[in-house]
Design goal:
The chain has about 325 residues and is α/β, with parallel strands linked by helices. The chain has seven helices and 16 strands. The chain has helices at about 10-20, 40-45, 95-105, 115-125, 150-160, 195, 200-205; strands at about 5, 30, 60, 75, 125, 140, 185, 190, 215-220, 220-230, 230-240, 245-250, 260, 265-270, 295-300, 305-310. A five-stranded mixed β-sheet has the order 9-10-2-1-14, covered by helices on one side. The protein is globular. It starts with a strand and ends in a 5-residue tail after the last strand.
């Protein structure tokens, strides 16, 4: 019985699952197609490149690029707990504040830099301490590099010699200039969004590595369940007066009987990482046009793209 289903335990999925279940009355199911972040190369900063084109990487490719002799460009994306925050280069840069202000001017209400700054500060644990621009005590650790590359140091010295300004913090009041990049690390190790709430990894360990497709409580919250590497490839959902009924079929297994589930909302984080051709997610009222029809979600063989068909009431 879930109020929300979050597809993807990546950078945003871990945050959403934690924030939603701060309300003890909200029940959440968190689904992740990959496995745990148990490979040592994930946590050692210098070995992050070794994760490319492994089981921990979706290893996407772009469409053929005309400006690049029609080559397809490799597009790494994390396929594990923490998503791409578990395999990126860990550099922490918010972006230029004028970009946010321009978005607000173009109509994106609430996205000006003064409006988003409190949320940046709330999520940060800046090791130098809180300032007007930086936060401390939040879940995401922001640190200075412990062992910067000597070539980086030489580059900064050369920049200073030709008059390029040094800035102490790319995320502070002055972004223009050169500086060492701050990183999402702690104690010399990567600090992903999964590390922000490390209890979710214990849920996997409690299952002794068994890849269970059913959810189980994590983070010490009975109302939050997680399922890693679910076996189910097809699921059907139909409307009923008492809620929804869901059934599924796992690869190589007999179809499972339908079971009741109260899914009032579904949060799907797949437009970029797991693109779907069509989806019907949202509040139950949004699915009323389907009446007694079913929605099928099927993963084609050999691909990560999923399709869903509404046998009744196609949008």
């Amino acid at each position: 019985m879930y109020d929300y289903i979050i597809i993807g335990a990546g950078s945003a999925g871990c945050v959403l699952a934690n924030r939603l279940t701060e309300d003890p009355k909200v029940n959440v199911l968190l689904l992740e197609a990959g496995g745990p972040d148990d490979k040592q190369e994930i946590h050692i900063p210098i070995t992050w490149l070794r994760l490319f084109k492994t089981a921990y990487d979706w290893a996407y490719e772009t469409e053929p690029e005309p400006q690049m002799n029609n080559r397809k460009m490799y597009w790494p994306r994390g396929k594990m707990l923490g998503g791409s925050s578990s395999m990126n280069a860990m550099m922490y840069v918010r972006g230029n504040r004028q970009d946010y202000n321009e978005w607000a001017e173009l109509g994106a209400q609430g996205w000006s830099f003064p409006e988003v700054l409190p949320y940046f500060k709330k999520m940060e644990n800046y090791e130098r301490g809180a300032t007007d621009w930086r936060g401390a005590g939040g879940p995401l650790n922001i640190a200075e590099q412990r062992s910067p590359n000597p070539l980086t140091t030489a580059f900064l010295q050369a920049a200073a010699e030709v008059g390029i300004t040094k800035t102490d913090d790319f995320n502070g009041p002055h972004q223009e200039g050169v500086s060492y990049a701050l990183v999402t690390q702690k104690g010399g190790r990567r600090f992903s969004t999964a590390d922000c709430w490390r209890g979710i990894a214990a849920a996997w360990q409690d299952r002794a590595g068994a890849r269970q497709s059913r959810g189980h409580p994590v983070w010490g919250r009975d109302q939050l369940s997680a399922a890693f590497a679910p076996l189910r490839h097809r699921a059907s959902q139909s409307s009923e007066s008492a809620g929804h009924r869901c059934g599924g079929r796992s690869a190589g297994r007999r179809p499972k009987p339908a079971r009741p589930s109260r899914q009032r909302r579904a949060i799907s984080l797949h437009p970029a990482d797991h693109p779907c051709q069509r989806r019907a997610a949202g509040q139950c009222g949004h699915l009323s046009a389907l009446q007694e029809g079913a929605i099928n979600f099927q993963r084609p063989r050999g691909g990560s793209v999923c399709e869903d068909e509404a046998r009744a009431g196609r949008a």
